[in-house]
Amino acid sequence: MSCVDKAEKSIEAENLEKSSYLDYSNKADQATGGINMIPIETEIGTFNVYTKRMGNSPTMRVLLLHGGPGGTHEEFGNFEGYLPNEEIEYIYYDQLDSYYSDKPNDPLLWTTEHFVEEVEQVRKALNLNKDNFYLLGQSWGGILAMEYALKYQENLKGLIVSNMVASVPEYNKYAQEILAPQLPDDVLKEIQAIEANKDYANPRYEELLMEHFYTEHILRKPLEEWPKSILLMFEHLNPEIYIYMQGPSEFGITDDATLSDWDVSDRLKEIEIPTLMLGAKHDTMDPEYMKWMATEVQNGRSVITNGSHVSQFDDPENYFSGLITFIRDVDSGKIN
Which key words are in the record (predicted)? Predict the structure, then answer.
């Protein structure tokens, strides 16, 4: 290629309209790379939560609610491989008492009511509104997303419930009656014996789960192939809030946990905004129940991937295809 050709191509490139998606200039969070520590007012004081904005979009902004409770935004670590190319803005967020946020460590705040109001304060601080605000909740984050929508759906453009059913009793029934019997008999008996003795701290319990259950229903890859972001999420998980709200068992939520009787299945019909139910064939959550949930909300769609509980990692093609199509269909008015 001649120097003249190179010069012409350079000028041509400069004349192309530059995307503002990754332009953080002249923004208040430019110096922090999109990180905002947002003050949250609670009944026991004011504390800061971590958020990190990725990209810019005037009409497609997705706030990500992680699982747990007590997990971290790290579970969404591969969103960077899919959403930027679509110029969809997404916002990482660690809920109070999660790793990157403040940790008052007070059970007074460990309620769905508190976390709904926390999301609302984050929404206001980030200027999210019905013209641009999509809320995506995965696992426990799905519970939180449904609860938020039931109280504040007028602030939402779209709702995405990822890998979570609307009823903990249904989740428990599926785990105990469908998933547990799929384990080898000797493995199931050993797990049940450990749980009966409430010996959850026994290293053998985690070993059995990791080898026989997690690689089937949490992330369908050999443990040595699990992505670093998921390993970090497990490493950073806050066990105190997790056990308080979810319990120590992985075969449902235990009776003494505060979420044990949570159920909004009869209230799904109240949700009017466009809603995507993102389930998975091998999930800990019943995919057929998630399909049903999409028929209960007033404007629902379901996508069932071939993955498991974190299907963004073990079936990213179908997960992100379903997610991106939904967001773009809502944005374009195909769903409203």
Answer: Hydrolase
